[in-house]
Write the structure tokens for this entry.
Amino acid sequence: MSDPVIECLRLVSLLNAMGVGALDAPRAEYMLRISDTGEPDRPHHVADPESALGLDGYGALPVRLALARVADQMRGSLWMLAVVRPGDLGGLRGPAPTNEQALACGAVVVNHGGGVAWLPHPVGPAMQWQLARAERPLPPPAPPETAMALNEQILESARELAGLDAAAGRRPEDAASVVLGRAYPVRNQQLLDKALLWREACAAGLAVEDALLHSHAQLTRFAHLRRLDTLCRQAIGAAASWPDMRPAEARA
């Protein structure tokens, strides 16, 4: 089953590459449609029931139409990724139906200036994106700030859990990631890879109860893993939401 965070990472990286002039809409569609096996034939469609992009609101349309509309009407726009859960909307500010749909999906791509949100809905091997209206979101923190907070929490959680003689969870050797591309600084890619790795470790730890720990220790372990997971989600959003705004020749 596809991961909505990974799906949104792929989309937001391509939309931001378009926004900074590193990619055109046809190339963005080609890259979005590449499957896990490397074949450029994975179907992506868009539904726009609220006419957020002014598309036909009565059915699913090829994603190329939405990307072309973004290139034409939202030239230079930047996009952010919000990885959400109940109690933490990741900067979303409504309207309420959009927030509710984002919570159901677990992740959403929103224009920095508001107006349009992309909600991921896997349909078998294909992807359908539902467009929705969105208020201007609160921007995610800058990647350096988020990287520092994540590193500090990793060290703090490791110390505390070692004192409890409790594991944070199996740390995976690798985790699914997305290549952000040359529209982003290298430090963003490094932050994204680390955050996705620790997110997976937190998920593994939260899924396992340690019967050897007393109740206070279990609560402490849970609290640390939840805080670490929150910072991982924030770091994923920060890494994906702030491309390199320098001219293309300076990024080469």
Remarks:
- The first strand starts at residue 44 and ends at 47.
- The two ends are 36 Å apart (CA to CA).
- The chain has eight helices and six strands.
